[in-house]
Automatic annotation (TrEMBL):
Domain BFD-like [2Fe-2S]-binding: 2-50
Cofactor: [2Fe-2S] cluster
Protein name, entry field: Bacterioferritin-associated ferredoxin
Domain of life: Bacteria
PANTHER family listed in its UniProt record: BACTERIOFERRITIN-ASSOCIATED FERREDOXIN (PTHR37424:SF1)
Length: 64
């Protein structure tokens, strides 16, 4: 699914960036330019970011 239609950024693109170490909306903006046009994607991107970071944190807690 597209998160940012203006810049053709999908949820898969964002998830891949988070797996590579991006942890903030600012990081995603620098990498994908999300939020630079109409801004409608920011809320969805933030929700996706938080969800993915929680998943990463949960797997790290389970491993330790």
């Amino acid at each position: 699914m597209y998160v940012c239609i203006c810049n053709q950024v999908s949820d898969k693109d964002i998830k891949a960036s988070i797996q590579e170490g991006m942890t903030t909306l600012r990081d995603l903006y620098k990498e994908h330019n999300i939020g630079s046009q109409c801004g409608k994607c920011c809320q969805c991107a933030k929700k996706l970011l938080n969800t993915e970071l929680l998943k990463i944190a949960e797997t790290q807690v389970q491993v330790a």
